[in-house]
Amino acid sequence: MSKIEDVKAKVEIGKSKLVPGLVQEALDEGNKPEDILQAMVDSMSVVGEKFSAGEIFVPEMLIAAKAMSKGVDVLRPLLAGDGASSLGTCVIGTVAGDLHDIGKNLVAMMIESAGFTVVDLGVDVPADKFVAAIKENENVTLVACSGLLTTTMPALKEAVATIKASGLNVKVIVGGAPVTPEYAAEIGADAYAPDAGSAAVKAKEIVA
Amino acid sequence: MIIIGEKINGAIPSTAKAIAEKDADFIRNLAKIQTEAGADYIDVCASVEDSIELDTMKWLIDLVQEVTDTPIAVDSPNVHTCVEAMKYCNKPGLFNSVSLEGDKVDIAFSEIANTKWECVALLNSDKGIPKTAKDRLDVFIDLMAKVKEYHIDPSRIHIDPLIEMLCTSEEGISMVTEVIRGIKEQYPTIHVTGAVSNISFNLPARKIVNQAFAVLAMNAGMDSFILDPLNQDLMGMLFATEALLGEDDYCMEYIGAYREGIFGQKK
């Protein structure tokens, strides 16, 4: 197995202690940092697909993302200043009045693993704060809004409406337990994802 | 967490029958299915009369080793039988068991001292089974003096605090859990073991009592279990409890055991 294949395989099964060393070995073998990063992004799409399909569990996705992030730490000094492999920045948050953060954090992790730079605004984020974050950060291509309560669905609607009304050129993806694809379309979101794995896939699709 | 599969024991009627009839396939199968169910040791206890005990042990151990590499727990109340039976084993296993009765402990420890064998030690003495937690912990202290004398690392010792039936106890398992906690406080790396089903003798629906006991005993520090590993509900309970106690990072052991079909998936 080539080193780069080895990196892919070990990221997929979440071997965070082994991945940094393997990434270094892959570099030593002459692989480009961008290719190694891409290989890890590919593994994470496999992980995301398996999660969406119910084949693996949340902790297995978590340790895979953790393993990738350890690998990225090795690559980071070599990639700095070169945004070529980034899909841009994703601003993410749970909407006003809602304090749920576990699902939102999983989505942030998977979107980051897919190649975005992630700016996490946390929970209970008012609509105008999303807009401010789009302006403050460089190259924001995507906003991800999470709402976990039926009572905060109106806040989700307001967040999407405020972002769209700002005229800024970003895509908006929404999700959360009570949210349906129909509701997402109704409030003007560009995409809906039922789980963290598909969120990463959709995110790449809509900014492409 | 250490699982000692208890099924090859002449005290179990179906196994006794297989031993009496020299039914080799029956024994081999018990070794195989317990290994597949996640046993870390296969306990082998002949429970036959003295004159044929050692020959029976050899027959059983050979059969087990024909089908699995899982280490063996040589199990006899007769310490000499255990010492002889060790010699039939292809790899270090578990010496089950010793206690401070007579010279048992010296005979056993001098045999295992310079090996990788582990050892179950019961907390009774010449005076019988101590009635209070303090008395049992006193026996424990005497026992550990022997462990030290023979330069055996505490991590190779499995202390059996002696699980007695719940139905005649007036205070549930509080005495035993106090003993377990006392043991683990003094020697964090030592194992605490026990035959889980002892707790439920003479009660109906024993499985339920066994599971509840396992959870509470683990909470006190028990980490080694003599049980039927084919009991999926009990095995699942152990893995779940281990995760709940924060001893299973990211629930990987739990998920792994589930995937191997050790619990939660009817085959």
How many strands, what sense, and barrel or not for the largest sheet of chain B? 8 strands, parallel
Going across the biggest sheet of chain B, name each strand in turn: 7-6-5-4-3-2-1-8
CATH architectural name of the largest domain in chain A: 3-Layer(aba) Sandwich
The count of strands of chain A amounts to 5
Strand content of chain A: 5-15%
Assign the CATH topology of the largest domain in chain A. Rossmann fold
In round numbers, the mean pLDDT of chain A is: 92
Summing up helix and strand content along with how strands pair, one would put the structural category of chain B as: alpha/beta
Instruction: Classify the helix fraction of chain B into a percent range.
Output: 40-55%
Write down the secondary-structure element order of chain A.
HHHHEHEHEHEHEH
Shape of chain B: globular
Explain what this protein looks like in three dimensions.
The complex is a heterodimer of chains A (208) and B (267). Chain A has 208 residues and is of the alpha/beta class. Chain A has two domains: 81 residues, Methionine synthase domain (Methyltransferase, Methionine Synthase (B12-binding Domains), Chain A, domain 1, Orthogonal Bundle), CATH 1.10.1240.10; 122 residues, Rossmann fold (3-Layer(aba) Sandwich), CATH 3.40.50. Helix content of chain A is 55%, strand content 12%. In chain A, strands 2-1-3-4-5 form a five-stranded parallel β-sheet, sandwiched between helices. In chain A, strand 3, helix 7 and strand 4 form a beta-alpha-beta unit. Chain A starts with a helix and ends with a helix. The model of chain A has no long low-confidence stretch (mean pLDDT 92). Chain B folds into two domains: 73 residues; 139 residues, Alpha-Beta Barrel (TIM Barrel). Chain B contains ten helices and eight strands. Chain B has an eight-stranded parallel β-sheet with strand order 7-6-5-4-3-2-1-8. In chain B, helix 9 runs antiparallel to helix 10. Chain B is globular, with a radius of gyration of 18 Å. Classes of the chains: A alpha/beta (208), B alpha/beta (267).
